[in-house]
């Protein structure tokens, strides 16, 4: 069982990041602009000389769309546009939240949106926020890898959803091979870490699923333990 990834059609070498969503890479011996959908810093992945895989784009400012990066002995998916679809696939196949049914993508709530609306086995409604995790240090998957006020706001909105009678979940998709546990990145973004911890205390359920990227798909590997406490 695996989630299929639309195969990239080019490989290249990363040169540098120009801004949040734009990078420069060497493809076929020529420099080209590449779209980076993931807004994280990705510093441990997108360094000069890193081998990348991309899809050719039609139109727009960039020539290619970044799909994955090779890092030592692993392939890391960096296409964050797939995260909601991956989470829905995990749910539909019983890997995550067995017995739940996906009703809608990007449901509205309050003044914003979450990623998924589900129906629980008991017929209730459940909201899910999905986060992709590409940072791993010493066997621990960490989120975020850059400050995210939006992420903290999502956690606060999930607490409101619980108060209004919804089930609420956060699903962290861990895309690093060596990760053995998940934790919020207290050093990078204490506000998000505190918001996640507070959400958990108010009934929001936290999940971390590790997936392995291969050419070209994703395999679910295991559910990871979660540590929400700040480092001592």
CATH architecture of the largest domain: 3-Layer(aba) Sandwich
Spatial strand arrangement across the major sheet: 1-18-17-15-12-11-8
Got a strand count? 18
What is the CATH topology assignment of the largest domain?
A: Trna Endonuclease, Chain: A, domain 1
Task: Provide the number of structural domains.
Answer: 2
First-residue to last-residue Cα separation? 40 Å
Share in helix: 10-25%
Please, how many helices? Answer: 3
Structural class: alpha+beta
User: What's the CATH class label of the largest domain?
Assistant: Alpha Beta
Strand and helix order: EEEEEEEHEEEEEEEHEEHEE
Mean pLDDT: 96
Rg (CA only): 18 Å
- Name the overall outline: globular
Q: Spans with pLDDT under 50 lasting ≥5 residues?
A: none
The proportion of residues in beta strands is 35-45%
Largest sheet: 7 strands, mixed
